[in-house]
Amino acid sequence: MKARVAAAAHHEPVAGALYSFRVLVVLLLCLAGAERGDGQAVAGGTRRRAVDVGVILDRATWLGNISWACMEMALEDFYTDARHASYNTRVRLHLRDTGPSAVDAASAGVDLLKNVRVQAVVGPQTSTQAKFLAELGNKTSVPIISFSADSPSQSSSQTPYFIRTAWNDSSQAEAIASLIQKFNWREVVPVVEDDDSNTRFIPDLVGALRHVGTRVSYRCKIHSSAGDDEIKGAISNLKGNWTSVFVVRMSYQLALKFFRLAKDEGMMGQGFVWITAYGLTDIFDVVGSPALDVMNGVVGVEPYVEYTDRLRDFKQRWHTKYKKENPGTKLNGPILSGLYAYDTAWALALAAEKAGFLDSDFMPSETNNGSTDFERISTSKAAAKLHDTFLKTSFPGMTGTFDIQDYKLLSTTYKIINIVGQDRKVVGFWTPGLNISGNLKMKADLYTIIWPGASGKVPRGWLLPANKTLKIGVPFKPGFGNFIQFENGKAMGFCARVFEKVIHSLSYEVPIHYEEFGDGKGESNGTYDALVYKVYLNEFDAVVGDITILANRSLYVDFTLPYTESGVRMLVPVRDQRKKTAWTFLKPLSADLWLGAGAFFVFTGLIVWFIEHRTNHEFRGPPASQIGSIFYFSFSTLVFAHRERIVNNLTRIAVVVWLFVVLILQQSYTASLSSILTVEQLQPTVTNLDEVIRRGDYVGYLNDSFMPGLLKRLKINESKLIPFNSPEEYNDALSTGRVAVIVDEIPYLKLFLSKYCHNYTMVGPTYKFDGFGYAFPRGSPLTPEISRGILELASNGTMAELEKDLYGDTMCPDKVDSQTSSSLTLHSFLGLFMITGASSLLALVLHVGITIYDNRSHLVSACSQGSWRGSLAILSKIFHEPDNMSNTPDTDETRIANVDPIVESPWSMSSHIIENFDSDTDMGSPAGGEGTPGREVSNQDPGPPSFAYMHSER
């Protein structure tokens, strides 16, 4: 073309001049078009289009200055990348340096949309600016993209064109809550800057803390323009609070001032916990040593970014570029928000290419009213298309995977840093799956955290307020001073002793001051409910005394664990229910046992007589004598005074077993009779309240207690209730019959019984209540501390010793259970009677069998004659006639005497009669000559003939 232009100039000067002018015009138009962004870049004949993007930043801030440099480098890196050389679009940034003003930011946005006609706006730094620009984006369908501002108060459905390319604050709140849960802190105070940046963060944090059981007692807000005096006032309020765990979220400048003053006030020492939210953790990159010096021991939470080769190379190039543009800077690399700005610019370049041809399609305004004519800005379909494409863009960015979900960058992992000296040490991580862990891939303990004050011991999460002495309320209790009383400015009694034991066992000092809830004239200032309510009104820091834990009281205060026995019972008089009469001796044995024992006495006597009367002359004689022997022998065994000689071994066995039974029966009777005659059987006069209600008796209770409400619920008429104040009044009312029962809590009743044990007892069901506890304000950290101390006293035996001092060495036994003696029953001795009965029957059977076997020849002879009467007669003779072979030693004389049947004993067995049957002699003829021995014996006084003999004669 140059040759053609030269030839024309040589041959045709005029024409050449005209042609040169045309070429110059074309070049100027090209330059002008390039300036407007409408020029053409030739790359293989392809036209490249510019996509205009507005940027609103405050270049006077570290964030604005760093972010702008990162965005410029992002586009430079993107378009120099060989992978993007063939792209047909070019994103062009239009910067507006607006400062911190939201109005200026909104004005700049209108200008960019009306005059530059941008397809996107990036960078409103603050939430206040984002609130205005989000509405502007909704009207024009232009995406408003922020990498630093929090979401506005509206939901994403209300502001669909506002996109956050930073991690969601709600996930940060979950990470902070998990860290607090890890160390079991139960109360946290957020300390935040009073601006729109915390509109969404505070509710998210409170909700996350509530989910892990941590309470937010109040919130400390400090305005960004606050001076030193105002900040000191806020710090003083924090020092006057029990909580020592704080979550801080504010700007760099305000945070540096706040922590400097907090250190001066001694709040960066041991026992305090400071947790900084993401955003503030960048202060160490921006401010450097001044921040590190005043924030030692602070724990911070910030998004985790993997340190890759690409990130390391970028930081080196960024530092070179930034230091060249900003000489004297101390920054070594971009802050996290700068990396978000880099990824945002990269994502816009990708989205612009994927969206295809984008041209400014804003409808022109009907009138030109200036750059702030907000109402007449039209929508842009190209910007809406870029918006949709941007939301679907995903790539590996500097901070990790760039992925927009619900109009926010998807958050994954947070790291936990600890400021130690001049270093930031990573001590752990938070992930949705593992929560708090020292390792990214597995559950592990955190590394050691150095807390404020250079202490490695985890703070307990609360501290006594500076120069705080606990004001302890003590109830006025004239009647039961053993529990609590106030003397000479000091609390006395069991309740105060337990409390002071617990206080002194704590690892820290708790200054206390007692104050009686009385008027100084021997009267109380109100009920126990009124005293507890004084704690709710912060007039007392706690109440120490016999305060029963009740549901209505727990609505206003927190109670410790109970330190006394719980429940309500009845106290009633007792009386001896046994009446000692002339027939008391019969009571040890029940009627069935008396009858059973008598039956076995007779049964055993019969068995002994039956076995012994054939061979033992002591069991023979007239019928009356033998009957007397039966009963005498049996009953004389009661005192082991029987004199009859036993000659049969079977009888001896039966008697030995029977004597064993008699011994046990006798001893049991003696013990039971002694108990009846000497021990009182004390029984309560009343066993249940239903009986009291039915009889219309009066009921006593402790004055100034919750008993009237309980008794009314139990359907006791209010007119039947009488209050008392002391154990002495209890005793007087019960002993005189003024009241039938006293209804009170078990500790009071046990103290009463320690003085009046013998005449009263506790009866009836136990109505459940939680016993005595100490009252503290709601959320007081001392409540769990005192509760743990109470458990420690109970486990090491100290509580038992204190109760022993309160109730005395001996405890009053339960009259109903321990002093009752009932009659012995037949069932208790049934086994013994079965043994003696079985042994006696066995002896009888063996005796019958042996006797029949010894006389079997006579029975066989009788049976051979075929007469059953004869057989019975033979059996009768066998078991009723005496057995002379085994009788007493003078056997020969008895045998001679028995030759004459006239002189035979009527109940003895005659052996020679059986011999006469065998020899067929004349039983009626007299015996031989007068000199015979038989004749001599016959001259003695003969008895009547035996029953067996007379029967055989017939």
Automatic annotation (TrEMBL):
Is Disulfide bond given among the entry's keywords? yes
Which compartments is it annotated to reside in? Membrane
What segment(s) does the record annotate as region Disordered? 918-954
Cite a single GO BP annotation: monoatomic ion transmembrane transport
Function, as annotated, reads: Glutamate-gated receptor that probably acts as a non-selective cation channel. May be involved in light-signal transduction and calcium homeostasis via the regulation of calcium influx into cells. Glutamate-gated receptor that probably acts as non-selective cation channel.
Q: How does it associate, per the subunit comment? A: May form heteromers.
* SMART domains in the record: PBPe (SM00079)
Q: Which InterPro entries match?
A: ANF_lig-bd_rcpt (IPR001828), GABAb_receptor_plant_PBP1 (IPR044440), Glu/Gly-bd (IPR019594), Ionotropic_Glu_rcpt (IPR015683), Iontro_rcpt_C (IPR001320), Iontropic_Glu_rcpt_pln (IPR017103), Peripla_BP_I (IPR028082)
Q: According to its UniProt record, which protein family does this protein belong to?
A: Belongs to the glutamate-gated ion channel (TC 1.A.10.1) family.
**Which lineage?**
Eukaryota, Viridiplantae, Streptophyta, Embryophyta, Tracheophyta
The record's listing under PANTHER family reads: OS06G0188250 PROTEIN, OS09G0428600 PROTEIN
The record's Pfam families line, in alphabetical order, gives: ANF_receptor (PF01094), Lig_chan (PF00060), Lig_chan-Glu_bd (PF10613)
Membrane-crossing segments per the record:
593-611, 829-853
Cite the Ionotropic glutamate receptor C-terminal domain residue spans from the record: 471-809
UniProt membrane topology term: Multi-pass membrane protein
Q: Which pairs are disulfide-linked?
A: 757-812
**Name of the protein described by the UniProt record:** Glutamate receptor
